[in-house]
Design brief:
The protein is of the alpha/beta class and 218 residues long. 31% of the residues lie in helices and 23% in strands. A 7-stranded mixed sheet has the order 3-2-1-4-5-7-6, with helices on both faces. The chain is globular.
């Protein structure tokens, strides 16, 4: 039986709300690790969503909502079933589960991100205050879900997440912190993002787009 603990959260400063706002409208979007398609279902209807997920059950659910969805293991880096480039590629809580996240990010963006397009990434923030407190108490226990999900193969801070983007041949355009409780405070005092954000949210683009901003879709 397939068990998927991840659910949609759309409070004002939540990670999913930030991702949906970054997607905007009138885009062709690839949702990597699309789950049941809840991000596309909540985004603006002018967007066209395609999805991939390694669980057949969730991919089948997404296919009822998206233009198309397919079962796909990102670790294999096999060609996608669609010969097209996307205005936006979403990797929401995906890269930390992969064997080689840098290679996967570089592959997807080089082959499938359109010129001027954006990749939107969310990653759990291991520098969150709750993890820091546990470390002070000598605790570092993995859990079924959350920042220390036992299926996470990699841990990230804002700094290391931006380095992942850079070494994958991209440049970070925006960095945001996903957290429903501390969201208003982070918005006013972004210097506390590293400690208070539960999730790291980055919007990135091709390096050559930085040299030619006129091609950007934002």
């Amino acid at each position: 039986m397939e068990v998927n603990p991840y659910m949609l959260r759309l409070s004002k400063h939540s990670t999913h709300k930030l991702i949906i706002d970054l997607v905007g409208r009138d885009r062709t979007v690839l949702d990597v690790g699309c789950n049941s398609g809840y991000i596309g279902a909540s985004a603006h209807r002018s967007n066209t969503f395609y999805g991939i997920d390694y669980l057949p059950g969730t991919a089948a659910k997404a296919k009822k909502i998206y233009k198309d969805a397919a079962v796909y293991d990102i670790n294999t880096l096999e060609p996608l079933p669609w010969k097209k480039r996307f205005d936006a590629i979403i990797l929401a809580d995906v890269l930390e589960h992969l064997n080689d996240p840098e290679r996967a990010l570089a592959y997807l963006t080089k082959k499938y991100l359109a010129p001027g397009g954006e990749v939107i990434i969310s990653l759990p923030n291991v520098a969150n205050w709750s993890i820091r407190l546990k470390l002070l108490l000598g605790k570092f226990n993995y859990t079924e879900t959350g920042i220390l999900d036992q299926t996470h193969l990699h841990l990230y801070t804002f700094q290391s997440a931006k380095q992942l983007v850079k070494t994958s041949g991209l440049h970070t355009k925006r960095e945001l912190g996903g957290t429903s409780f501390f969201g208003p405070l982070i918005r006013i005092l972004p210097m506390f993002r590293g400690a208070l954000a539960h999730e790291i949210v980055l919007c990135a683009g091709h390096v050559h787009d930085e040299m030619n901003p006129a091609t950007s879709l934002t």
